[in-house]
Amino acid sequence: MARRKFDILYLDRTRSVCEQHLIAAAHPAFEQAFSVLKQGALVTGDLGITTVEQVYPGDRLKLADGSFETVQWRGSLTFNAQEIGANTPLAEMTRITADAFGYSRPSTDLVLGHGARLLHRAPGIRKVSGSDTAFIPAADFVDGNNLIKLRPTTLVTLYQFGFQGQCAFDVNGLAIESLHPGSAFNLGLRAESLRAFLALFPHKSSFEDFGLLRTPRLRLRDLDLLG
């Protein structure tokens, strides 16, 4: 299996910013955890709007509910799109045009990686999950008009942020799911691969440290089945 370099910044127990560069398998579970926000995406911190590449652990970012929370982990993955297979999920991105989901949602065009999930509200979600909202893959909303599938041809860097637990943070006016690996069982990893995966998140010592999923994850087709 091919291998990738994963770049990690995190807060240790003394609240110091630490840096690691790990080589790990190019497994979909590994890549999805990092493949969320293309460089240049805009987030709001205590001092105003900034790009994702300028955010570091210890900074506070605006969440979808208007509150601010401290970033504990920042992961990034850089790859040359011309050197990976065309059928690799990593090569697939979603471009969301400005105002696609309503005024300033997003405020400007936004490009998301295949691991990005959007916070979505719809009547059918409660029927399926008992919750009013759910995180749904951005790629599920592709319509060829306001949301377009992209295959980059240049060097690309993707980012993701981890907080205390699962939450929705504001990116260009859209609510994006933060880092949460889900359950170890659903990752499809075993033994050594599972330990290698957890090593990508040194700010946590176990899967239990991530806490429960506060908001369910669904696919858009789950809601379509309800009519």
- Helical residue percent band: 10-25%
Largest sheet: 5 strands, antiparallel
- Poorly predicted runs are none
- Gross morphology is globular
Over all CA atoms, what is the radius of gyration? Answer: 17 Å
SSE string, helices as H and strands as E: EEHEEEEEEEEEHEEEEEHH
Terminal-residue CA separation: 41 Å
Number of helices: 4
Backbone structural class: mainly beta
- Give the strand tally: 16
Query: Mean of residue pLDDT?
Result: 93
Beta fraction of the residues?
Answer: 25-35%
* Strand line-up in the sheet with most strands: 2-1-8-14-3
Description:
With about 230 residues, the protein is mostly beta strands. Helix content is about 10%, strand content about 35%. It is built from four helices and 16 strands. The chain has helices at about 30-35, 125-130, 190-200, 220-225; strands at about 5-10, 15-25, 35-40, 40-45, 50, 60, 70, 75-80, 95, 110, 115-120, 135, 145-150, 155-160, 170, 175. A five-stranded antiparallel β-sheet has the order 2-1-8-14-3, covered by helices on one side. It has a three-stranded antiparallel β-sheet with strand order 10-9-13, with no helix packed on it. A two-stranded antiparallel sheet has the order 4-5. A hairpin with a 5-residue loop joins strand 1 (about 5-10) and strand 2 (about 15-25). The longest helix has 8 residues, at about 190-200. The mean pLDDT is about 95.
